[in-house]
Amino acid sequence: MSILSVEHLTHGFGDRAIFDDVSFRLLKGEHIGLIGANGEGKSTFMSIITNNLQPDEGKIQWAKNVRTGYLDQHTVLQSGQSIRMVLQSAFSHLFEQEAYMNQLYEKMGSVSGQELEKIMEEAGQIQDMLSQHDFYAIDSKVEEVAKALGLAEMGLERDVTELSGGQRTKVLLAKLLLEKPDILLLDEPTNYLDEQHITWLKRYLQEYENAFILISHDIPFLNSVVNLIYHVENAKIYRYVGDYDKFQQAYAMKKSQLEAAFKRQQQEIADLKDFVARNKARVATRNMAMSRQKKLDKMEIIELAKEKPKPEFHFKEDRAPSRYIFQTHELVTGYDTPVSHS
What we know:
Blueprint: E1 2-13, E2 16-27, E3 31-35, H1 42-49, E4 57-62, E5 68-70, H2 83-88, H3 92-107, H4 113-132, H5 138-148, H6 165-179, E6 183-187, H7 195-206, E7 211-215, H8 219-225, E8 228-233, E9 236-241, H9 244-279, H10 286-298, E10 333-334, E11 338-340
Parallel strand pairs: 3-7, 3-8, 5-6, 6-7
Antiparallel strand pairs: 1-2, 1-4, 8-9, 10-11
Helix pairs in contact: 3-4, 5-6, 9-10
């Protein structure tokens, strides 16, 4: 079942094309690694499919009633909210259903007959739904995920505005995992996580029954959780079955085959041009030359992608001016409150 359909996606910044006529379908339960060189458009892709950025052309269509969860590290957390409150907000839709169910129970005292039966049936359906979603185990779920990602040791009653940027990202990730959406959209989720937290997240994603799209430069982590690779390159998105290692093998083979086909075609083009040049002026061979020229004109030319330049750094060595690199006196650092003291 397709939960996301992208058709003829085209987008760019200025004269530079980021995507050019890209189409694909994302299926239920797929675990996708979105890879590509820096600047190829991975984060732009996430912004487009979450409607945070409008494409120049194309159609983005989600299936009905699909719940998406996007790890947006720029989300603002409100002052006065504790870590626990933010995590519990992952279940806000269930709390709303509980409140509505309680209203129905209150209404039962003032109605009778068929109306009472109707209200009782509706309240019972909500009660069953809450039970199916483990509504009455929310506190233990919050505690479990908070402990797994290192939030419990910060203190769940702590105000979120007192947290550093990395700590806030942990809170947002925990909330997202608790929401358990139909598709997770994760952009570098292992940033700010310790090794033990990464191990827990790895197990969580391996067992995740819903779909996710993951951007990560942590190749071992990526390899352990994905079963599909979407490779963003030269304004296109290519789909490969398997993990990152299998992608590399398939990509190397594809590149080798393309280079071989390119060389064969270039040799054929050279031979055809030579034949045309030698025979177009001769009456006896003019028709054959024209036939070769038509073949040249209709030929679909194979093009090789340009090799992207790799950055190089060269640092010159110099003598230190003294035995001290730098010195500080009575230094205090922090944000709203000091992190270190003099």
